[in-house]
Amino acid sequence: MIKNDNIKITTNDLCVFYDEKQALFDVNISINEKETTALIGPSGCGKSTLLRCFNRMNDTIENCVVKGNINIDNANVNNPEIDVVQLRTKIGMVFQKPNPFPKSIFDNVAYGPKIHGMAKNKLELEEIVEKSLKQAGLWSEVKDRLSQPGTSLSGGQQQRLCIARAIAVRPEIILMDEPCSALDPIATANIEELMDELKKEFTIIIVTHNMQQAARVSKNTAFFHLGKLIELGPTDQIFTNPKLEKTQDYITGRYG
Amino acid sequence: MNTTLLTILIISLSIFAFYYAVYKIKSAQSLNTKHRPLHSYYGWYCLFWTIFPALLFFCLWTFCSSIWIDKTIINIITLSINEEGATNISLQLNAIKNAANGILTDQVPKEILSNYISLNQKSEFIRFIATLGIAIIGLFFLIRKINPDLRARNKIESILMVLMFIASFIAIIVTLGIVLSLLFETLKFFSDVSPFEFFFGTTWSPQIALREDQVAASGSFGAIPVFTGTLLITIIAMCVAIPIGLLAAIYLAEYASQRTRTIVKPLLEILAGIPTVVYGFFAALTVGPFIRNIGETFGLSIASESALAAGLVMGIMIIPFISSLSDDVISAVPNSLREGSYGLGATKYETIILVIFPAALPGIIGSILLATSRAIGETMIVVMAAGLTAKLTANPLESVTTVTVQIVTLLIGDHEFDSSKTMAAFALGLTLFIITLILNVIALKVVLKYREKYE
Predict the structure, then answer these.
(1) Hey, which of B82-91, B115-124, B247-256, B295-304 has the most confident mean pLDDT?
(2) In this model, does residue B436 exceed pLDDT 70?
(3) How far is CA B317 from its chain centroid?
(4) What distance in Å separates the CA atoms of residue B71 and residue B221, rounded to the nearest whole number?
(5) Band of the pLDDT at B411, cuts 50, 70, 90?
(6) CB-based contacts of A147, cutoff 8 Å, min separation 6
(7) How far is A197 from chain B (nearest CA, A)?
(8) Summary mean pLDDT of chain B
(9) Digit-coded pLDDT (tens) for A95-109
(10) How far is CA A109 from CA A94, A101, B99, in A?
(11) Mean pLDDT score of chain A
């Protein structure tokens, strides 16, 4: 079982509906601080939906209704009183397809710090940008061309730029929605290496279709099927000795 | 012998060609029934070569023979009336043509008339026979060529490609023709009036004197007041349309629910469908007097025809151009950019201003420019609401006039078509055309330079 001494996020009977269709059924999951948790499962099983619940990104979908509780640091995220903007500064997000803004590399990273007033002057802003790019392992590749558009980078570089952009706001949690599915194996290896570094400082939740990736990067793994959390446990146990037959079937590729 | 009969014959020939080609290819392929190529392509191919050369010949012959007949008749006329010293040969020619069509206007020499008629008949006879002949030759030639090895579909596709090329070429040719005709009339105008006066003069009163000794007999053609009038009204219109149009677009694309959007957007687009004349009397009967009344309460005397009234209504008219196009552009910005921004804790406002708007800017500028050229070219509203007198002023409460209105007033009524007064219209038109062209080029450059590509 997962050790429960440093829990960052818990959900309590979380249900999500898109109009009449229910996407998540009574999910109860707990996620540890400064560890990487992988969410795996076949397409349409609700793992991305769950990820988007953590930073209330589902609010942007018109017909989406979320029921139940999500507690982050013992505060309920679904409380309508909560300031979503505040919440999202605490939770960074990296998307499936690299989505740099149509701005320069510098402005992409500086975007978050600027809107949150994190830098008092230009020098501080430059420091934040440099630090974030270094942390994302991109600094050496782009330091001479910070004024070029972010979209001029390669796919893998763009994704690392998006990670730099997310960590520039100094979040506590980073959500990653299949961050490597549009990348080649070398870029994927880079990102995985980066995640290994980042987990020292951030709580990472990653959705992935690549089970080797889940096995490589995560400490804990949650398996979802048809909107239900089937099994949650330490990654090595899920992959070598799952408790349930369904998990076993999925991991060994009997269905997917 | 007439054209109707010829048309009927050619059409029946081509229908025969189509079905015979289809029949022939079907029977030729009956041995190999596994593949069923598209038989109708053979029919169309045959039909094309039956009609097209015949049609081409018909047109060419009609064109060339009429020129040749005219020349012959003119020669005869000049020979026969040499001693009378007749001046207007083309008038005579017209009289003969009218007479041949049964309209007797003047006395025409009988022999020339009969000469003309017989020439015409001969030409028509040759045309009839030859056209029919070409169609039949085309038909037989093609029927013989029909066999399964003929790649009829490829041929039809290349014929279609040529037709499409011609279609696109026509648009270019017509545009070129319009520009050239404007250019030549303008050059004629500038041989009467100096370009310096036209471009830098500040008085516009293109009257032509009735008597030689009248005051300001030559008229004055300083176009500056006319262009400033256009500028003033366009600026007022854009001041109304850009903020309202953009805010409406942002509301529709970012804030409105799907239901509101499906109702509001078509309603806004109805504005674009109202005829400009209707806007014109709205401006002249409602907005103009309204502004005058407001002015009176502040002790200002405002004419009921003012640049402000015309500009305001014109602004309302072009709102849908900006709102509808900008809405499309803003909606086309990928959702991933919005989510990326929200994910960083940006508010909706920050997201729109810092991410969506820059990404959509090229399209937005495009829509604004389209609206501006509409405003510059708009005529009806200004005729009805802004007046006709050219005044060099920047005061929106005075009555001004615009380039398009002046073009209209210069060309309506009875004038000789080669007076400076009418020629001035062409000069105005060409200048306006060049201005909008420059605007478009600038816009294109701006868009290319500041484009933030999101793919």
Answers:
(1) B247-256
(2) yes
(3) 21
(4) 42
(5) confident
(6) A104, A105, A106
(7) 21
(8) 84
(9) 999 999 988 999 999
(10) 13, 10, 86
(11) 90
Domain ranges of chain A: 7-99+172-251
Q: B341 to chain A: which residues are within 8 Å by CB?
A: 101, 111
Contact list, B453 vs chain A (CB under 8 Å) = 102, 149, 151
Residue spans of the domains in chain B: they are 3-150, 220-450
Fold for domain B220-450? MetI-like fold (1.10.3720)
Number of H helices, E strands in chain B: 17, 2
Strand partners, B221: B204
| Cβ within 8 Å of residue B443, ≥6 positions away | B365, B366, B369
B108, B44, B39, B38: which is closest to B80 by C-alpha? B108
- pLDDT tens digit sequence for B172-212: 999 999 999 889 988 888 888 888 888 888 888 776 555 55
Q: In the CATH scheme, what is the code of domain A7-99+172-251?
A: 3.40.50.300
Distance from CA of A238 to the nearest CA of B (A): 30
ipTM over 0.85: yes
